[in-house]
What does this fold into?
Amino acid sequence: MKSLFYSFSIVSFILVLTHISFLQEQTLNDQDNVSEILERLGDAPVSHKVDTLASEVASAEKGRELVLYGITTDVFNQKTKKQSKHFVCTSCHNIEREDPDLRYSDPQARLEYAVQKDLPFLQGTTLYGAVNRTSFYNDDYVKKYGSLVDKAKDNLREAIQLCAVECSQGRKLETWELESVLAYLWTLQLKMEDLQLSEEDKQSIENALNGRANKDEMISLIKSKYLQASPATFVNPPEDRKIGYPDIEGSVENGALVYEKSCLHCHEEERYSFFQLDNSKFSFKHLEKHIPQYTRYSLYQVGRYGTSPINGKKAYMPNYTLEKMSHQQMEDLRLFIETMAE
Ligand code: HEC
Ligand code: HEC
It folds into this structure.
């Protein structure tokens, strides 16, 4: 009996010991949130955490409904007014990861990844990891939205509101709706596994978490593995639309992917546009005829300039920056359309 008691005590003693050392030793796991690891390393918290005080009724589920359907229910269980008559957020943004390597914004790598993951290929940057970014409407977007970008540049709340009104051509979100969208976006934050760290890097970060390596260096290391801002370069259509980009040889197969993953996402069955496109000869002939013209029916023009919004009244097409469609992909699309129109 006595020996049983002793062995029991020894076992519990060992259990307590391992538990204590477990508490002391911080581990790093694939499913850990990048933002939390950064904070544990001493990085300053971001300003767009959900403000639960400002809005007790905010919820990630309501945010999800707003992003996917543009509508949700309020505290009285009443349906809200539709956020936009024309679009939902996912008309132009994915909610999944869309880049195979988060350090680069490479349109061809993204297109291939989109095909593999069955995602559309769109003008807006994915909302996956949006809360991990610190700067919005970067680079050339100031040309499109002017001083509206000032407020949104380093403020995710303002960036969402700008998009709700300008990109989505709808109404501003109410405070609780905005906090709900934020809460939903936090469910789409980057995980450590998204960074594809080497075992060595993981070990160094774990060491830093336990005070055995420089924390600031590890913060920089982590931030070097993903873009904190989505780059945006505006380009003009080619000078001569008949010739296009003569130095680039198009690929019909790749053009088919652009058409399928991008154009048809909005234009098939008039999903987000009254301009209907499909895989019929009629669609291809129409597009082909207008390629060299200086109108919005030319894919060079509509691709690089988009169409202009008529506030609230009519859907418009957002332009593709160079990061969202390369010149090569534009020529691929052209060749595909010309081939299909034959
Ligand atoms: C008609 C297309 C369209 C719709 C609809 C739309 N957006 Fe956007 N959004 C864009 C484009 C284009 C940008 C430009 C910057 C980028 O995403 O790269 C953008 C930018 C953003 C940004 C800043 C991203 C960054 O990293 O610069 C956020 C956040 C955002 N949108 C959220 C939303 C939300 C939330 C909704 C729904 C309420 C929405 N958007 C609806 C096209 C759209
Ligand atoms: C995010 C959604 C979206 C995507 C992606 C998209 N478009 Fe559009 N596009 C629109 C909207 C909205 C209009 C405005 C026309 C309307 O509905 O009144 C438009 C207009 C056009 C027009 C001019 C037609 C007109 O009536 O003004 C052409 C041509 C066109 N798109 C071709 C394309 C091609 C080619 C692609 C692929 C490279 C593409 N679009 C991708 C939404 C989109």
Observations:
- The pocket of heme C (ligand 2) is lined by residues 91-92, 122-123, 262-263, 265-267, 272-275, 296-297, 299, 302-303, 307, 314-318, 333 (CB under 6 Å).
- The mean pLDDT is 93.
- The radius of gyration is 25 Å.
- Residues 127 and 321 are 17 Å apart (CA to CA).
